[in-house]
Amino acid sequence: MDSEDIRHFEADTSAGKVRVRVMDLDNGTLLLLSDSDRFRLGISAVAIPPSRDESEPASSGLFTTGLDTILVRTLAERIVSWTGRTCMAVVAMSGLNQKVLLELMAFLKDCFLT
């Protein structure tokens, strides 16, 4: 992996600053989000592009349940819909909610599509 395959961003949200690291891998995208100075493990989800018979990406949370998992799965699915590539999202944030997720999606859309 070369340095140009790793991008760093910082998003201002209603929950505070969120650090973003995007790693473009040969077979997909790894997205790390953190509300602290360091990246760490957190709620994780993987989404894959739709098959020929499906119209939407499929996703699964990893070892987690609850609303936070649904939010992270939604984020991973959205990135797949933008890129057409498998996405694993790891979100280490204490203030994640639907409002913050929408703010992050708007920010990330610019990062991925421009």
Q: Could you please describe the fold and organization of this structure?
A:
- The protein has 114 residues and is α+β, with helices and mostly antiparallel strands.
- The protein has a single domain, classed as Ribosomal Protein S5, domain 2 (2-Layer Sandwich), CATH 3.30.230.
- It contains two helices and six strands, in the order βββββαβα.
- Helix 1 packs parallel to helix 2.
- The longest helix is centred in the middle third of the chain and has 17 residues, at 67-83.
Beta-strand segment tally: 6
Number of helices: 2
Assigned CATH architecture = 2-Layer Sandwich
What's the end-to-end separation, in Å?
Answer: 22 Å
* Low-confidence runs of at least 5 consecutive residues: none
Q: What is the CATH top level name?
A: Alpha Beta
Largest sheet: 6 strands, mixed
Strand content: 35-45%
Q: Tell me the number of structural domains.
A: 1
User: Radius of gyration from the CA trace?
Assistant: 13 Å
Strand order of the largest sheet: 1-2-3-6-4-5
User: Mean pLDDT, nearest integer?
Assistant: 93
Instruction: Tell the overall outline.
Output: globular
CATH-defined fold name:
Ribosomal Protein S5, domain 2
Element order: H for helix, E for strand: EEEEEHEH
Helical percent range? Answer: 25-40%
Question: Based on helices, strands and strand pairing, what is the structural class?
Answer: alpha+beta
